[in-house]
Amino acid sequence: MSRIGPGSVIAGRYQVEAQIGIGGMASVFRAEDIQLGRKVAVKVLHAQYAEDQEFVERFRREAKAAAQLQHPGIVSVYDTGSWDGTWYIAMELLEGPTLKERLIREGRFAPAEAVSLTEAILKAVRAAHRDGIIHRDLKPHNVILDDQGNPKVTDFGIARRGASDMTVTGSVLGTAHYLAPEQAQGEVITPRTDLYSVGVVLYEMLTGRTPFEGETAVSIALAHVNNEPRSPRSIVPEITPALDAVVMRALAKRPSDRFADADAFLAALSDASRGISPIYSPVTGEQGVVGDRRASEDRRTGSMAALDVDDRPWWKKPWAIALGALALIAVIVAALILTNKPRVEVPNVLNAAVDTAQDRLEAEGFEVSVVRRESNRPADTVVGQNPTGGTLAPKGSEVRLSVSDGPGDGTVPRVEGETLEVARDRIESAGFRTNVRRQASEDVDNGTVIETSPSGGSTAELDQVVTIVVSSGRREVEMPDVVGQPLDAARATLGELGLTTKVVEQETADREAGTVLSSDPRAGTEIRTGESVTLTVASEPTTATVPDVVGRSEAAATRTLEAAGFSVRVTTESVTNESQNDRVISSSPAAGQVRDQDSVVTIVIGDYDPPATTPEPEATTP
Q: Could you tell me the domains of the chain?
């Protein structure tokens, strides 16, 4: 791979302006997209990885998956491909600082800001998980802040355990501070792995430090597996118990003890802002709140804000509630002991289809009840379960499933003729997700929306994907080889490709008139439809060079001159050299001069007249 520097052109399209970043896997350059006239960031894989075919194939496949992600909180991927023996990814250019750079500069954040940033990151993670993509390397280094300070997540679907974060000796590099325990142990990666990493990022924003430190990456990874982190509240007392509980649950060692998905994490953060801790309540049997739902609603409306704890009846005071809860737990435990029913692990069926979930639970010996509710998740998808997956429950007991009825319907906005940015904002504001597909068009300008699917004005289920078809301008075609073809045939070939022609004639005696001598652009060049191709075509010559006929007979000279396109006039001139008799002694114009065809060439024929002889006198005889 050649050295990349300012002025280098990557893949014939991205002109490099400067290097803006370098990592263990790739270098990132600010560049100009020559075709679309916009600034982009181009990430180029290091040469040592480009030689590993297995890694390159994974990079190519996962980069393609990342390009399909469309979300305001995810850095957009525009293009990916191979170039100069390696692979590149062209993406949205953000020149703001990373979240890590800001943490280094400012230290810990106020809890409210830390929560707000985490919520934005979780929404991006949720979008990726819904598309089946697990990030695997979430860390503040991979979160870029835009001009307004909003976070955008990058490197989706690219960094993985293996060549991207291991040395040849097996030591974990760089990301060890944010590794989930199952990553450090080489176990199965799930969406909850990403949620652990987000929990580490939240911990760092709240406290200014990561949960575990060490002299080596391996020691840090082992700490994630074996050690319990200090609670954020023990480091920063102003952190509320509710928010502290959210962080500690996100950092649970077992994935089943963490939040079920990004939605549950978001809901817990929302509850924490109102002082509700995300712990399992033995009183209600529900996961995510302490106390009853009515109390939660009261906190939202503020009706309890003015209620002094000393004015409550004794049975509503905290100590009485705690005693009641303990008594209820004792009753439950005693009942379980008496009934002596075997306890089995409840399967985790969140996000599964309701029929599949019911079959799995019944196969394990559980009774199933279903409650449907409106949700932005696909219809017939399990969005909640009680008891939660991974917990133990008596065989034959009931598992309650909350199943999505879908988010309801909405009207897809009409955005034909709008720019992509405007169209995306309008469609997402209407409650839909978006995907972008580019399509060449002879009639619609580059960057303008051609149509949507479903079409504008139609009714569709909210939160479903609306594909925005955007014009990429006129399509590019490869210039065919038409040299040597008759002009009419060349014009027909170019016309079928949507190209126009301009003809320039060139006199030549070597090719038949009307034959294409050359084309501009040349064969094999990429050219957009509608553009003009200049064809240079052979034409009959209108001038000729006077041939040399001196010394030839009149007949032979006349034939030669007429064959060159000239008319012949003959004159004679007396000569004294008998060898010039009846031979051309000169021409006008002279040989070698260029004259219009059909012009007259005068040849002069030598006329030899031998001199008269005097007879010798006769001899006399004396």
A: 9-92 (3.30.200.20), 99-275 (1.10.510.10), 343-404 (3.30.10.20), 409-471 (3.30.10.20), 476-539 (3.30.10.20), 544-608 (3.30.10.20)
